[in-house]
Design goal:
single chain; mainly alpha; MetI-like fold; 0% strand
Length: 262
């Protein structure tokens, strides 16, 4: 094994080594009283609480509620952002009309308008889905629009020379050419949607991981709070790994090019 391969393996394991060392130190400091066991329970205690939540079915109920809201909200907001973003990237006239509105609305914190959303859509599930959809909409739209705009104009000149229809240009040039940034937008949109999903559950929900976090803090069951954060982190890691897998399958040319740069 040459030195380059050795250091690559070390770099790949370095994050896990750092996390493991941090957990060992945390366990030791919590057990010896150097960290408050009330606010910083030992990792073993957190794992025990997580196992108990799994066995009694509590985690499944709240996890299904959060994932359900996330999936529906992303399906609505992500699809709308995808279609509008591609259309705005392709049509300068449409971009000129809508882009100022996007620039004005996008910086507004989505959780700040949640009370207004509840006034319009009620205090039930609809308002939560709308808030999550809005959170997913903007990252998807901006990345899709950028993906189309970065395409080489030569591609469109070729389609015009061959008198390709608008549908063929869209399906064979616009979508494939912008797919790397579409997948990037998907990743950002899902992450933002998850943040807002947890936030709205903290504010107004009866089920969800955000509800566990809030009630764990109110009742000082801090180990359940940390266990919920672990589940959220694992959920995010799983989604990102799945999207990376899709990216390698759907855009192998882009990933190969990126790997060669490093």
């Amino acid at each position: 094994m040459n030195n380059q391969n050795f250091w690559r393996r070390v770099e790949s394991w370095l994050p896990m080594i750092i996390i493991g060392l941090g957990l060992v130190l945390w366990e030791g400091f919590s057990r010896t009283g150097q960290l408050s066991a009330l606010f910083f329970p030992a990792p073993s205690t957190i794992v025990g609480s997580l196992i108990q939540m799994i066995l009694n079915g509590k985690l499944a109920i709240h996890l299904v509620a959060t994932v359900g809201r996330l999936v529906i909200g992303f399906a609505i907001g992500g699809t709308a952002g995808l279609l509008l973003g591609l259309a705005m990237g392709w049509s300068p006239r449409l971009r000129q009309i809508i882009d100022p509105l996007i620039a004005a609305i996008h910086p507004i914190p989505k959780i700040a308008i949640f009370p207004l959303i509840m006034i319009i859509f009620g205090i039930g599930e609809a308002s939560k889905i709308v808030a999550i959809s809005i959170a997913a909409f903007f990252p998807m739209l901006i990345n899709c629009m950028t993906g189309v705009r970065q395409l080489n104009p030569v591609y469109f000149e070729v389609t015009q020379n061959y008198r390709a229809s608008s549908w063929k240009t869209f399906s064979r040039v616009v979508v494939p050419g912008s797919s790397p940034l579409i997948l990037t937008g998907t990743r950002l949109a899902i992450n933002m949607a998850m943040v807002i999903a947890i936030a709205v559950e903290l504010l107004a929900a009866k089920e969800g991981l955000g509800v566990i976090i809030w009630f764990s803090w109110q009742t000082l069951r801090i180990e359940e709070l940390y266990a919920s954060l672990v589940v959220i982190a694992l959920l995010g890691i799983g989604i990102n790994l799945f999207l990376q897998f899709l990216s390698k399958r759907l855009t192998p040319w882009y990933n190969d090019q990126t790997d060669r740069q490093y």
